[in-house]
Amino acid sequence: MRKIHGHLVGIDQGDVVLFSDFEHDGDMWTGEGPRKISVPVTFSESYDSPPSVTVSISMFDMSNEAFSRADVQAEKVTKSGFAITFRTWGDTKIARVRVAWQSIGALSSEDAWDI
After folding, report:
1. Where does the UniProt annotation place the signal sequence (predicted)?
2. Distance CA 104, CA 27 (A)
3. Which of 4, 47, 55, 115 has a Cα at 20 to 30 A from 26?
């Protein structure tokens, strides 16, 4: 469990379209085997330390001709941002994906003293 000391806690959130590969016959739509895409996200304000980040698929458009396989994670979390990484594999055909995210962490306060 992460404990946040002090009284200033920041919560940031957003929604990111990771790709729309059906529009241009991209790899997620036409490819096979392991595929991955990472999209950087910048927080609206930097945290004191890397925050907790949660990601979830908010829109998933895929072919019904194969099994649906998806893995989405928040990676490389820093004070100022992170990367949303989406993976699929096998014969899965994914047209487009949108991911919602939320970060929670400690923020600096003008009243905080660094002794």
Report:
1. none
2. 33
3. 55
Q: Where are the domains of the chain?
A: 9-106
Q: Which of 44, 57, 77 is nearest to 16 (CA)?
A: 57
34-60, pLDDT tens digit by residue? 999 999 999 999 999 999 999 999 999
Q: Which CATH architecture has domain 9-106?
A: Sandwich (2.60)
Q: Is there a contact between 60 and 71 (Cβ–Cβ < 8 Å)?
A: no
Helices (H), the chain: 27-30
CA 79/CA 38 separation, integer angstroms: 18
- Global pTM reads 0.88
Q: How far is CA 31 from CA 21, 35, 62, 91, 96, in A?
A: 10, 8, 13, 8, 14
